[in-house]
Amino acid sequence: MAPIYEYSWLIPIVPFFGASIIGLLLLAFSRTMNRLSKPVFAISAGCLSISAILSCFLLAHELAKDSLPYVFDYNPSIFGSNLHISFFADSLTSSVITVFSTGLLVLMMIVHNRNYRKVGYVRNFVSLGFLSSTLLLLLFLYPLSEVLK
User: Crossing angle for the helix pair 121-141 and 10-28, nearest 10 degrees?
Assistant: First the structure.
């Protein structure tokens, strides 16, 4: 198994953690967090950049070889019940995830330029972080090659 597959589950998780941290800080320190627009942008864009870079590495690895799709199975036991999670990685999924993560990063930069220092700036970035992680997770959970048949 290639090392990129071991870290491919981080692609949808990193923006979620960034948005969660900023959201918790916004709830705890509302006035202070609304004034810190540059660090909020740096954390959000940094988390989404990490996801975009990982997805580019995954796409490069998928295009460099011709093999079967990779399935990452994860079976955690949460509160006594087993949860089955599978991530699918093939060339179509990798290319779609790369396009979406890069597009979401561009969207985040556009929102930063349009809404800088306006009311709801931090709330918009928390929403964009959760939206991007949800979208990337949905793209990873289903094999797109079978969905598009």
Answer: 150
Burial of 99 (0-12, 13-18, 19+ CB in 10 A): middle
Q: How far apart are CA 67 and CA 135, in angstroms?
A: 26
DSSP code at position 119: T
Report how far residue 127's alpha carbon sits from residue 20's, in angstroms, rounded to the nearest whole number: 10
State the DSSP string of 78-103. ETTEE--EEEEE-HHHHHHHHHHHHH
The tens digit of pLDDT for each residue in 21-75 reads 999 988 888 888 778 888 888 999 999 999 999 999 988 888 887 666 777 777 6
Which residue is it, tokens 């700036």? 121
| DSSP bridge partners of 70 | 89
pLDDT one-digit tens code per residue, 101-123: 999 999 999 988 888 777 788 88
Q: What are the residue ranges spanned by the domains of the chain? A: 3-147
C-alpha of 89 from chain center: 15
pTM recorded for the entire structure: 0.84
